[in-house]
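Tokens as discussed.
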């Protein structure tokens, strides 16, 4: 099982784009508990608009994007791939199954792929280490 390549403690502003209301809320709550500013959205259209605004601002707007591979509306990878070509540098975690097409598709946006449970565990482990 691959380890997350970064510490959750390095992120101040995170965009969480997950369709499942419970999972999105759990991720946002866990990040809020770490003192992270979170923008939580549940649809691809909203993700696309947020990413486009971040690129237009031309400065790091988000430190991290956590996006559901099966986001309602369409794949978040289209918006993230476009943003990467525009110089978008935020770290990306794609919530989805490993060893599937999600891994291959995520490579084009330099994303780490993990289940929602693993992402929550990663955030929680950082909280436990800080206590």
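Sequence:
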């Amino acid at each position: 099982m691959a380890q997350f390549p970064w510490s959750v403690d390095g992120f101040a502003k995170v965009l969480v784009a997950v369709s499942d209301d419970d999972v999105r809320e759990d991720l946002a709550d866990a990040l809020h508990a770490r003192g992270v500013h979170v923008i939580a959205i549940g649809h691809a259209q909203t993700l696309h608009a947020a990413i486009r605004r971040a690129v237009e601002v031309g400065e790091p707007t988000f430190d991290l994007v956590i996006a559901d591979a099966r986001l309602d509306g369409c794949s978040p990878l289209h918006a993230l791939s476009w943003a990467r070509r525009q110089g978008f540098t935020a770290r990306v975690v794609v919530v989805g199954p490993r060893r599937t097409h999600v891994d291959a598709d995520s490579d084009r946006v330099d994303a780490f792929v993990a289940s929602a449970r693993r992402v929550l565990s990663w955030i929680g482990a950082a909280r436990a280490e800080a206590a």
